[in-house]
Amino acid sequence: TLYDNYESDKESRHEWEAMFERGFDLLGLKLEEASEPFEGACTAVHPLLIESAVKFQSKASQELFPSNGPVKAQVLGAMTGEKELQANRVQNFLNYQLTEQMPEYFDEFERMLFHLPLIGSAFKKVYYDATLKRPVSEFVPIDQFYVSYYASNLNKADRYTHVIYRSPVDLAKDIRSGIYSDVELPDATNPQPTSFSSKMDTILGLSPTENNDPQYTLLEQHCYLEIEEDYALPYIVTVEEQSQQILSIRRNYKKNDTNQEKVSHFVHYRFVPGFGFYGFGLMHFLGNLTMTATAAMRSLVDAGQFANLPGGFKAKGVRIVGDNEPISPGEFKEVEATGQDLNKAIISLPYKEPSSTLFQMLGFVTAAGQKFADSTEQIVSDAASYGPVGTTMALLEASSKFFSAIHKRLHKSQRDEFKILARIDYEYLPNEYPYEVPNESTSIFKKDFDGVVDVIPVSDPNIPSNAHRMMLANMALQMAQQSPPGMFNLEELNRTILRAANMPNLEEILPPKIKPEPLDLSLIHISEPTRLL
Question: What's the CA gap between 524 and 533, in Å, rounded?
Fold first, then answer.
């Protein structure tokens, strides 16, 4: 039953995946030589789509994963000294986890940020690895994650299946660790690649080996089953695809949860929410524009080639001494004819120079696509010509609406991911866990993840870039210079400006002031003559 459900979910989005197979050709990642419509025709692909995706990945990575760590903690309820210390411990430990203890997190996060703008949906899986004895966060490619057709989101989905490829060695480790049951399985084989992965392999020039890397294909399905009760409850069932042997069945709700709610292990990142479960990406928005720009660019290049080295007709009686190879630039060949006869015997086809109208249309199409994807860079570079800071801020905000909304969605999804990580720490950490960071040895406590402290991304969903922060800081600095002395805290304002500029040694440039403490009069010794006086 589980296998049939997986097959139906896979079939339900067959045409959806086929669209991306065509869209991958628009990335221009494969070097090709064309023989159609003629030998040596231009095969260049306009970089509009891949440029927009790489720019988005770079900007989002910088905002969502700063060098000091991506997690910030906030206290729920009234602030007390004890809660503040707990929040600091949680924040420091999670940043240590994501930057030191989980070295795969940043690489998997960047892979996700590259797939997300192109496809529109990307998934992260956060779970406790019994073999590594620590949490793991991994990116799940879209062709390894299948959701039921009527699902609107992961929480309400009746089922979703994660396709896992495991080598015989890794599967044996998992069985020894107690992750899977030790059942008799057939020999591992080469998995049948999906059309989605085959297209990507073709573009990258990769191909799976025949017999040297056999893999087991595991189907981990999160679904509802009637096992312990007479009504369906959430479970995680892992099946080996070839033999359809069940390797594990796990309860997917907390045993002491009276509501028996499903525990989430996956996070769905959306670029732009679509009409259904999956989001829209740049392939949907810029695919046709990229095809148009590519066609125009190829026409211009081909027209330039024909205009530089035109072809034509020659009379049958004109003989070229030697071979009939094409004439190279600057080369003269002998012919058996007089100049007057040659002028009449050779006719060049009326090839035109590249069209200026077509060139202007290429510029219009490219500008339209770049404006849709991101136009903040041009505004920041031209900020000096716009006049006051307020005008520049208004233009900057208007131009970045698209990315700002996506940034808020990323912020929300990353927050869900951190909450899953905090839940895993609460379930698997010992009562006290000592760890070491530069210049300090400290500890985290299991009870620190009791829900009093909420974990959120360090990025600001309302300010999606350093350019925004710098503009706001400069506006505040102008107001401070024009206001009466004492109205603004200039030290804190300068600290904010340097922080927006990512100044590395901020504490050394602006060390915090030592607050004066009240003097304890009981510690003062008063001499006898003074007391008499």
Answer: 17
Question: What is the pTM assigned to this prediction?
Answer: 0.79
* 224 beta partners: 234
Residue 11 to residue 27: CA distance in whole angstroms: 26
For residues 440 and 474, the answer to whether their CB atoms sit within 8 Å is no
CA-to-CA separations, 476 to 385, 390, 470, 492, in angstroms, rounded:
20, 11, 10, 11
Rounded mean pLDDT for each run of 10 residues along the chain, 533 residues in total: 93 88 86 74 88 89 85 85 88 91 93 93 94 93 92 91 94 91 90 83 78 89 91 94 94 90 94 90 90 91 78 67 62 62 69 84 87 60 53 58 82 93 92 84 89 81 61 73 78 73 68 67 59 54
- Sign for the CA dihedral angle at 97, 99, 103, 109 comes to positive
Short-list 302, 136, 165, CA closest to 238: 165
The CA distance from 513 to 519, in Å, is 18
As given in the structure block, the two tokens for residue 465 are 């870039």
How many other CB atoms sit within 10 Å of the CB of residue 474?
A: 16
Count of residues in the chain:
533
Instruction: Tell me the pairing of strands 134-140 and 145-147.
Output: unpaired
The per-residue DSSP string of 497-525 comes to: HHHHTT-TTHHHHSPPPPPPPPP-GGGPP
DSSP letter, residue 97: I
Using CB atoms within 10 Å of the CB of residue 158, give its burial: 0 to 12 exposed, 13 to 18 middle, 19+ buried: middle
Please provide residue 256's backbone torsions phi and psi, each rounded to the nearest 5 degrees: -95, 10
3-state SS string for 381-433: HCHHHCCCHHHHHHHHHHHCHHHHHHHHHHHHHHHHHHHHHHHHHHHHCCCEE
Residues near 168 by beta carbon (within 8 Å), at least 6 away in sequence? 188, 214, 216
Mapping DSSP to helix (H, G, I), strand (E, B) and coil, where does residue 165 land? strand
Those residues whose C-beta lies under 8 Å from the C-beta of residue 41, and which sit 6 or more positions away, are 34, 35, 298, 302
Q: Determine contact, residues 274/120, Cβ cutoff 8 Å.
A: yes
CA distance 28 to 298: 13
The 3-state DSSP composition of the chain as helix, strand, coil percent (nearest 5) reads 45, 15, 35
Q: Helices 48-64 and 401-428: crossing angle, nearest 10°?
A: 50
Under 8 Å between Cβ of 369 and 289: yes
